[in-house]
Every structure is written in C-alpha cells, then in structure tokens.
Amino acid sequence: MISQKFLRCMMQVWINEGVVNGSTGEYYADGTNTRYGIAYEYNQKILHKYGIEKPEDMDKLTEEVAAEIYYKKYWVKCGAEEMPVGCDYLLFDAAVNQGVGYASRMAQECLNIFFGDDVLKVDGKIGPKTKAYM
Fold first, then answer.
1. Which residues contact 5 (CB under 8 A, 6 or more apart)?
2. Rounded CA gap, 89 and 120, in Å?
3. Is the pLDDT score of 20 beyond 80?
4. Across-strand partners of 39?
5. Cα–Cα distances in Å, from 56 out to 9, 28, 37?
6. Do 14 and 20 form a contact (C-beta atoms < 8 A)?
7. Hey, which of 32-36, 59-63, 115-119 has the most confident mean pLDDT?
8. SS3 83
9. Are 104 and 78 in contact (CB under 8 A)?
C-alpha cells in the first residue's frame, strides 16, 4: 500500500521532473516520449502492462499509474520506506535519476565516509546493516 511518506517524496520528485501545476512534464526534444517523468524508452515493458504499446500512446499514462510505477520500480526497490525522513527522499530521487543500484551504492559510500573505516560493504543493496547506519 502506498504510504503518505511515499506521496510526500513523490511530490518533490515530480517537481524536479517538471510535473507541477497541472503539467505532465512531457518532453520530446531528445527523441523519447516522457510523461510524469516516466520515459517510454526506459519503461516499455512496464508500460505495455498498462496498454501503452508505443511512444505515441504516452498520453494514456495517468498520474495514478505513473505514481504506481515510481512506487514499484524505485521506492520499494531502494528501501526508502524504512529510511529516516530526508534520507528517504534523497535515496528515492537518486534511484529515479541514476538507478536503484547506483543510489544504494552512493548511500553506502557516503556512510563509509561519514563513519570511516569502510563500515559497510558497498554492494548496492540496502540491508539491515546499511539501515542501521542511517
């Protein structure tokens, strides 16, 4: 179930993606079709499940479906729900923009810098030990 915590962070991500004041954040200049920050080029498999079979169909993508994609593809996979306020957003936003694995490795590297002596294995997986240091 989508939490209030996710919705708070999702709104900030959408601001970053240009989805504000009724705008869908559509972008076509680079040859991709993007709506609500979801690029067809990188999400074809997921979008096909919602009846979006080709780039021209992106106008069928609703806010609710876009939020569900963000939730399943990024929020859940990066473990943001279990993070403290602030860390949840930073991890989620990095996962959206750089990928879940990279965002997780980046968080682990930052924690190693802060706590020193490589307290965490930088493996791109947010497990109990990484969560304990956040």
1. 80, 81, 85, 88
2. 21
3. no
4. 34
5. 29, 11, 15
6. yes
7. 59-63
8. coil
9. yes
| Residue 22 pLDDT greater than 80, yes or no | no
40-91: pLDDT as tens digits: 989 999 999 999 999 989 999 999 999 999 999 999 999 999 999 999 999 9
CB 12 within 8 A of CB 86: no
Q: For residues 55 and 40, is the Cβ–Cβ distance under 8 A?
A: yes
Q: Which residue has the tokens 């499940």?
A: 49
Residue carrying the six token digits 């879940």 = 100
Distance, CA of 88 to CA of 75 (rounded, Å): 9
Q: Give the confidence band of 31 by pLDDT, cuts at 50, 70, 90.
A: low
* Spatial separation of the C-alpha atoms in residues 134 and 118, rounded to whole Å: 15
| Dist CA 5 CA 91 (whole Å) | 13
Is this structure's pTM higher than 0.90?
no
Candidates 119, 123, 85; CA nearest to 106 is: 123
Spatial CA neighbour of 93 closest among 13, 1, 11: 13
Q: Which helix (H) or strand (E) holds 115?
A: helix 100-115
